[in-house]
Every structure is written in C-alpha cells, then in structure tokens.
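Predicting holo structure, protoporphyrin IX containing FE bound.
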Amino acid sequence: MSNSYCAGRSPGVITGRTTPVGSRHRLPDMTPTEPAPPGFRSARGWTWPVVIMGVVAVGATIALVVPYVGLDVDASRIPTTSTLHYALLVAHIVTASVALVLGPLQFVPAVRARRAVHRVIGRCYLLVGVVPSALVGIPVAILSGRLLTQVGLTIPFLGWLVTAWLAVRAIRGGDVVAHHEWMMRNYALTFLAITARVLVPVMLVVQIPFSDGADPAAGVSSLIPVGQVLAWIVNLTIVEVLIRRRRVRAGLPARAAV
Ligand code: HEM
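Done. Tokens:
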C-alpha cells in the first residue's frame, strides 16, 4: 500500500520512491531511520529551521497576546467600536495563538512520526485554532472600517479555511505530499501575524528618506494594514518557491494536480 499514513507508518520523513502514483503524488513508506532521497531534506535537515520557527512563534504569541490578557478594552492595540467587536477580536487572538504555537510542531519529523500525536495536534490546530479564528476574524476585519483591511484580510481568512480543507481532503485521500504542501500554505497564512510585525518597521525605516522632515512614526497606523496584506502575500510566495524547489529536486512535477 503506497499510503504510508493510512498504513500506520510515519509520513514524517521522506524516503524511497518519489514517482507519481496515478494523478496524485504519494510518498512511499517512510520511517525515521531511513535516509531521505535526493531533493527532500532529511529529518535532521529540518530540525533547526523548525526549532527557530517554533521559538519565534512562541515569543511572538506572548508579545501579541499580552495586551488582551486582562480583557481591558483600553489596553487593546487597535481601536474597537463595540463590546462585540472587542469580544470577537479577543476570540480571534486566543484561537489564532493556538494555531501559531501548535503549527511548528507539525513540521517536526519526530512528531509526525508519532501518528496519533500528529493527528491530535493537527485536529487542535485546525478545530481550536484556524477554523474558529477565521470565522470570528472575518467580522473583525469587516468591523475595522478600513477597506484595505476588510478586503486584504478577509482573503487570507478564506485562504486559511480553503487550505485547511484541501489539506484534510488530501490526507483522507492518502496523498501525503499534497497534505504537507497545503499545510505549509496554511501555516504561511498563520505566520502573517509575525511577518506583518516585521514588515511594518521595515517599511517605516525605508520611507524615512522620503518623509520630508515629517515625523515618520505618524505614518505607522496607515502602514499597519499595508504590512498585514503584504505579509500573507510574501509568506505564500516564499512557501510556493520552497514547495516548487522541493518538488523539482525530488523529480516530481513543479505543479501538483489539485
Ligand atoms: C490568516 C491569518 C490572520 C488574519 C487574516 C488575521 C487578521 C486580523 C485582523 C483583520 C485583525 C484586526 C485588524 C484591525 O482591525 O485593524 C487582526 C488583529 C489581530 N490579530 Fe490577527 N489575523 C491572522 C492571524 C493571527 C495570528 C496567528 C495571531 C497570533 C496571535 C493574530 C493576532 C492578532 C492580534 C494580537 C490582533 C490585534 C492587533 C494587535 O494587537 O496588534 N492574528 N488580525
């Protein structure tokens, strides 16, 4: 059986045959002890990038959540228009934090090698994190009152739901490669919360030479929505490049059949 996930073996480390089966591309049986084939990183090769991503995710989550822990409306970093708006925002932040923190664990080969653990974390990531966060987040985006936020952040919320659904559909069909790739795209959207907080200061510094003596900090509030929209575009572009490189190296077509 080519479906290692369903066969009870680990989909975590990629080994052996990488040729397409039918219209889908399945990974062969994988165990943590076998070496990865050319094109795919070995379990050890993934460890450091994933550890760094995890540390950044946990640190950023703490920083992002702190102003909302006391449920003090006045401490909110963004203005809210009603109690409902604030409640939805807090619900978005709490659930999104679950996704941000759990996501990196799923890319750790040793965690994926333990199928039951991978499955439990995956369900929490999606059912406690991504899905509720997107559902309460869409009204938060709309209530922001800014067109750029309304359109530019509703799109990634929908992308969050669609990529989650495609990832689940792929693994249910036994397509481990497609599952991994859709989850990479999904976490790229989750990670927008961090990339946005990096892009805004960068944009601020870049615009200083053009600010004509004006206080550059005054433009921060208008740069935040721009940074948020750019963030998911940047993240998805990086992940798409990684996916294609990985596929080409492994001798798979650069584009997967959806
Ligand atoms: C698809 C992913 C996400 C989208 C589309 C999204 C979208 C949004 C939107 C629309 C707002 C309100 C912005 C405004 O009214 O100006 C917001 C606020 C916020 N989001 Fe997210 N978000 C996502 C993921 C996350 C994640 C993973 C976290 C991690 C904790 C997070 C934490 C926050 C925080 C803390 C705020 C309040 C603003 C602040 O204090 O900086 N979001 N988000």
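Residues 43-249 form one domain.
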